[in-house]
Amino acid sequence: MRKDDLKIAIYPGSFDPITKGHLDVLIRATKMFDKVIIAVLNNPNKKPFISVADRVELIKQTIKEEGIENAFADSFEGLTVNFAKEKGAKFLIRGLRAVSDFEYEMQLSQTNSAIAPEIGTVFLTTRPKYNFISSSIIKELTEHGQDTSKFVPKCVMEYLSKK
After folding, report:
1. FRET pair for 160, CA 20 to 30 Å: which of 18, 21, 44, 115?
2. pLDDT at 3
């Protein structure tokens, strides 16, 4: 198979930290595409809970723990569509937890389409058991010393327990 024939998708986000909901979307995306790059946005305007380098490393560990062979972790700055073009991706993966996510994600998708019409967006909903999980909730639980093992991959839980 030629590189041009590969179906490559970018799954962008802050992943601060990656949750089991993110992982659920990633696993399903890897069944649809030849290669999925889970891309951590480095937003200099936000104060992260976990550094970009650590988030990428935690995602790599999660991918390894789960035995996912066609997913890769990377980081980027700037517009997602520019990163997608750089990586040869024709699709963006966006996870939806609730109806409230849809309006923002649709607006983002339409903006991306206006900038880069050759790059499509695929929306994947999380399974109901993950709908309530967000990185913000994980941060708050961690700050209050609560167990996060039900909500994040094992390596993330171990990392957070040391914070």
Report:
1. 44
2. 56
